[in-house]
Amino acid sequence: MQYKISVLIFLKDKTGRFLMLQRAKEPNKGLWSPIGGKLEMPTGESPFECAIREAKEETGIELTEKDLHLFCMAAEKAYEGKGHWLMFLFDCSKALDTLPEQIDEGAFAFYTREEIDSLAIPETDRQGLWEIYDRFHDRFVALKVDCQPGKPLEFEIEGLIPSDNSVHEMPQND
């Protein structure tokens, strides 16, 4: 099985409700999830560039790298027995003003964190994604998830960077 590389973006409105998309296409057709999409690998797109592009395409919001916090890199092994996914999860600090219009990917709605637990969401999201968001959205975690069919989902933290308030900048080339 080949790896597919994707991003998920956790966008909120000004009251803190999460933007969710009821997917009209596979994977996860009919289920609710945060927005996102696959990296355009032929162009060398980075996960940040992909998140910015997908947010614009799906919601119309204009983002920069400073609006996004990469809080998780998750390697999902054998998702639905069809492929492996390397996913980059971003928390967005810029709020949406309005609910985006429906797109060919599906329809949007805002939900509180508590309401999301009662939605029809992918099993990997129910068993781990939202707990990962709750626990790690203010820092960084690398994890792997064994999704092989017929076996219970297994989540393993491979690396964790604690949260702190300091900003770490890359040195500039002179």
Automatic annotation (TrEMBL):
Pfam families: NUDIX. InterPro entries: NUDIX_hydrolase-like_dom_sf, NUDIX_hydrolase_dom. CDD domains: NUDIX_MutT_Nudt1. Residues 2-133 form the Nudix hydrolase domain. PROSITE patterns: NUDIX. Keywords: Hydrolase. One of its GO terms (molecular function) is hydrolase activity. The keyword Hydrolase applies. Gene3D superfamilies: Nucleoside Triphosphate Pyrophosphohydrolase. The keyword DNA-binding does not apply. This is NUDIX hydrolase. It comes from Pelagicoccus mobilis.
